[in-house]
Design goal:
Shape: extended
Oligomer: single chain
CATH class of the largest domain: Mainly Alpha
Low-confidence stretches: 441-462, 465-490
Number of helices: 12
Mean pLDDT: 86
Distance between the termini: 66 Å
CATH architecture of the largest domain: Orthogonal Bundle
CATH superfamily of the largest domain: Trigger factor, C-terminal domain
C-alpha cells in the first residue's frame, strides 16, 4: 500500500492511497475459497467447487465486499500511522479501479485541533445566589389557595351562573332506559368546568335550588363507552342547592387538606422548592460566566466543517424565528452579510467551547456511566404519566436518544470539574438580578429615537446555552376516569 499526503493546510489533510492489484486479487481469492467451503452447488461436494465457477457465481458480490473492506482497513491504517483524530467522518472517494488494476482512492478529512486546556486554577468566577423572600412564599401560597376552590351554599336561593357549583342528583337515560354509570347523588358540579359532556353544564345555568331539569345531550361519536357513542340521552337532574366560590382560608386546616401537618410545614416546603429553583438558576448563571471566561482564555482554530455545520444550524433557526414572528430579513438592523458574519463567530465559539469541554473530559477521564443514563431515562419517562414504560423502552431501543441525554450529563460533569479548580466567590443578589438577562444589562441605554429594528436571536447550542431559559412545565397526571355523564379526554 502506497500512501501520499497531497495536502496539509490548517486542519485539513488530503491523502492518496494506492493498493496494489496483487493484494486485491489475493483477498478476492481468499474470500472465494471461504465462500466455496460454505455454499452447496448441484454436482459438487462442499469445498470442491472449481474457482472458475465460484468467480462466475460470486465474483461481483465478493469484489464489492473486498473493496469496501480494503478501503476501510487502509483508511484506518492511514489515520493510525499519522496519529490523526478526525473531527468528522472522512470523505473517501475511489478514483481508479479496474479488474486486475491497482485500487486508488483519496481521503479528505479535517483533524481535531491540537491545543492545551488552560490553567483553570487561575479562573476567578462569581456565583450569584439569592435567598427566598417571605413575599415569594406568600405569593406561591396564594396561588395554591387560588387553585383549591371552596364552594359554599348561596345565602339566598338565586339562579346559578357560570363559575358557580350546583349540588345535584341525576339519572341518565337512552331511549327511556337508565344506563350503567349514568347516575349519581349529591354530586358537586362546577358550571363552566367542562367536566361533563358538551351541552350538559350549559343547561343548568339559570337553575335554582329545588329545580328539576331535563338535560338533553348527545354523546360524542368518539365517546369512550361504545354503547353510548353518538347516542341521544336525557338526564333527569334534581338541583339541591346552588353554591358560590368562597375564598380559601390559609391556615393549618388548609395545610392538612394538602397532606401536611400544619401551615408552617407547608410554608417550609414551598420555600424549599423555590430555593431549589433559585439554586438551579445560580448554577446556570455560573456556567454561563464560566463559558464566557473559557472562551476568552482559549483561542485555537476549529475544524471548518464543524463550524459550517453549526453555522447552518444557527442560520436555519434564525430564518425559522423570522417566519414565526412574521418579520423579514430586510427588517433587521443589520444586513444579511453582517448577520452571517456575526453568527459565524457565534458558531465558531460554540464549536471551540464544545471541543474544549470534550478535551477536558478526555484528559481527566470524565465519563458518563450507564447508571447515570438510566436515571436520566427514568426522569424523562416520569414526565409522561401512564406511559412511563413505553417511553423508557423507546430510549432503551434508540442509541441516539440515549446520547441526547448523555451529552448534557457529560457537559455538567466537566463544568463541575472546572468549577472545583477555579476560585468561585458568591454574591448575594435579588431574584430580579438573578433572572436578569446579562446581555440586556450590558447594553447601553438607547437614546429616545425611533425604535430599532428587531433581530431574531438564534437558539443557543449545548455548550453555549442561555442558562437562564425556563424549562417546560411538567405534564399533569392523567385525570381519574369519569362517569358516563362526563366527557372523555380529548
Amino acid at each position: 500500500m502506497q500512501v501520499t499526503q497531497t495536502s496539509s493546510e490548517g486542519l485539513k489533510r488530503d491523502f492518496t492511497v494506492v493498493v496494489e492489484a496483487a493484494e486485491i486479487e489475493g483477498k478476492i481469492t481468499d474470500k472465494l475459497v471461504e465462500v466455496g467451503g460454505q455454499v452447496r452447488l448441484p454436482g459438487f461436494r462442499p469445498g470442491k467447487v472449481p474457482m472458475s465457477i465460484l468467480r462466475q457465481r460470486f465474483g461481483k458480490s465478493v469484489l464489492g465486499e473486498v473493496l469496501e473492506g480494503t478501503v476501510n482497513e487502509a483508511s484506518q491504517s492511514v489515520l493510525e500511522e499519522n496519529d490523526l483524530r478526525p473531527a468528522q467522518q472522512p470523505k473517501i472517494e475511489i478514483t481508479r479501479f479496474d479488474d486486475g488494476q491497482d485500487l486508488e482512492f483519496t481521503i479528505e478529512l479535517e483533524v481535531m485541533p491540537d491545543f492545551e486546556p488552560g490553567d483553570f486554577s487561575k479562573l476567578k468566577l462569581e456565583k450569584q445566589v439569592a435567598e427566598v423572600e417571605d413575599a415569594k412564599v406568600d405569593e406561591a401560597l396564594t396561588q395554591i389557595a387560588g387553585s383549591q376552590k371552596n364552594f359554599k351554599k348561596v345565602a339566598r336561593n338565586r339562579k346559578a351562573k357560570e363559575g358557580d357549583a350546583v349540588l345535584i342528583d341525576f339519572v341518565g337515560k337512552v331511549d327511556g332506559e337508565a344506563f350503567e354509570g349514568g347516575s349519581a347523588e349529591g354530586h358537586q358540579l362546577e358550571l363552566g368546568s367542562n367536566q361533563f359532556i358538551p351541552g350538559f353544564e350549559e343547561q343548568l345555568v339559570g337553575a335554582k335550588g329545588g329545580d328539576e331539569v331535563a338535560v338533553k345531550v348527545t354523546f360524542p361519536e368518539n365517546y369512550g363507552a361504545e354503547h353510548l357513542a353518538g347516542k341521544d340521552a336525557v338526564f333527569d337532574v334534581t338541583v339541591h342547592e346552588v353554591q358560590e366560590a368562597a375564598d380559601v382560608e390559609i391556615d393549618d386546616e388548609f395545610a392538612k387538606k394538602l397532606g401536611l401537618e400544619d401551615l408552617a410545614t407547608l410554608k417550609d416546603n414551598i420555600r424549599s422548592r423555590i430555593q431549589e429553583d433559585y439554586d438551579q438558576l445560580s448554577r446556570q448563571t455560573l456556567k454561563r460566566s464560566m463559558l464566557d471566561a473559557l472562551a476568552d482564555m482559549h483561542d485555537f482554530d476549529v475544524p471548518p466543517g464543524m463550524a459550517e455545520a453549526e453555522f447552518n444550524s444557527i442560520w436555519e433557526q434564525f430564518q425559522q424565528e423570522l417566519e414565526r414572528s412574521g418579520e423579514k430579513l430586510e427588517d433587521q438592523d443589520q444586513s444579511e452579510e453582517e448577520l452571517k458574519a456575526e453568527y459565524q463567530t457565534i458558531a465558531e465559539r460554540r464549536v471551540r467551547l464544545g471541543l474544549l469541554l470534550a478535551e477536558v473530559g478526555r484528559i481527566n477521564n470524565i465519563d458518563v456511566s450507564n447508571e447515570e443514563v438510566q436515571q436520566a431515562m427514568m426522569a424523562q419517562a416520569r414526565n409522561y404519566p401512564g406511559q412511563e414504560q413505553q417511553v423508557f423502552q423507546m430510549f432503551q431501543q434508540n442509541p441516539e436518544m440515549q446520547n441526547s441525554l448523555r451529552a448534557p450529563i457529560f457537559e455538567d460533569k466537566v463544568v463541575d470539574f472546572i468549577a472545583e479548580l477555579a476560585t468561585v466567590s458568591e454574591k448575594k443578589v435579588s431574584f430580579e438580578e438573578l433572572t436578569a438577562d446579562p446581555d440586556e444589562q450590558e447594553k447601553p441605554k438607547a437614546k429616545k429615537k425611533a425604535a430599532p429594528k428587531k433581530k431574531a436571536a438564534p437558539k443557543k447550542a449545548a455548550a453555549d446555552k442561555d442558562e437562564g431559559e425556563k424549562k417546560p412545565a411538567a405534564k399533569k397526571k392523567a385525570a381519574p376516569k369519569k362517569t358516563a355523564a362526563k366527557k372523555t379526554e380529548k
